[in-house]
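Thread title: Can someone regenerate the structure for this chain?

I was given the following input by a collaborator and told the matching structure tokens would be attached. They weren't. Posting the sequence so someone can regenerate them.
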Amino acid sequence: MGVLFMGGGLILFANEGFSAQKPKEQTQLHEEIAQTQSSVVQETVSPSPSQEPQPLPISIERGTVKHIGGADRPGQIVSHLFDIVSVPSPKGAAFRPDGEELWVTMLLNKKRGVAVFDAKTGQKIKDINLQDGGGVEVIFSQDGKFVYVSQMETAQVFEIDAQTKEITRVLDTRSSWTKVLELSKDGKTLFASNWVGDNVSEFDLETGGLLRTISTVDTPRGLYATRDGKNLYVAGFENGDIQKVDLRTGKGKVIFTSGGAMRHIAGDEDKGVLYISDMGKGVVWKVALADDSVTEFAKTDINTNTIALSPDKKVLFVSCRGKNATEENYYIPGAEWGSVLLFDTESGNMLDAIVGGNQPTALDVSRDGALLAFSDFLDNRIQIYQVPSYEVLQAGNGGRSNVYKAELKK
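Best answer:
Regenerated them for you:
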């Protein structure tokens, strides 16, 4: 349990940071502290550092990004472009489908729950106040016209017009501590996992009405709705459960328990697989949709966090928060940096590795595959990288995968 004194008051909060013991009462509170003293700071853009520049051995020009970062570490295949700094507690991130904007949520922030940035320059476009509350996760509708943002403290979901950036509807989950959002593949239904409510809220987006709440395993987080509309997979954090819910009946069954802490799900139904990050075990699991068998896909660094697939589904990006300061103290920087890892989904081999900052958390890849964004949660920073084609990554001999671990210790 973490403690923070603010304005003479005492606030207790709970985190998704894994510990050997995860008592249920911890999950009844907040997962991470929002650094509210930073909420009035203006975002600034920091270019890739110029010390000891190591130019890339290849020239990359993809999508609309034409400026190529040049100060990458030796052997780095992905290329650092710039940082967006002074973004308090950046929890979630999503590129607009056309790649022009990056939307970032800020946890428990009373002044602005979401900030919108130019994805090519990092310049801020707009702050969005979520009725004096923060934002957790953010997703776009398939056509890019609407944005959905979850808010833990009110258990609500905000629908925002992506063009005007004005709130159009507020959806009440009628539960507690809302986290991950997932759209059905036809875009008509929205699912929201409720961390403390131990359920998932299902909304009809045509009417905005709550259709039902579906009981789940303890502390549900990651969600994946299958494209046939029949099943919803749920990542259970408390015990490391993977649950499969039959959407026709609302009944679920646990198909696997790791004893860790399942967090996030990414799917490739063309291959018939799901990838699920396990913060407690430091691995990514692979679920075969044909028979729900579960195998280990890849070992990662400690505190495996958000994952995302490249548009061609050939690369899995994994953010790892790094070692906590102590077993119980995860809300201040630890003795190691976090990391972002790139895996070949065919072989499971690591294609490249980025040494991040303090607690890499939010992560997204643009729809053209050219840009990677991730947050260093405790540093109030977003890092933007350019990603080459899969062929370039595959030919890069693992990039920095064989050397980066020596640089994680501060």
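The first strand starts at residue 2 and ends at 6.
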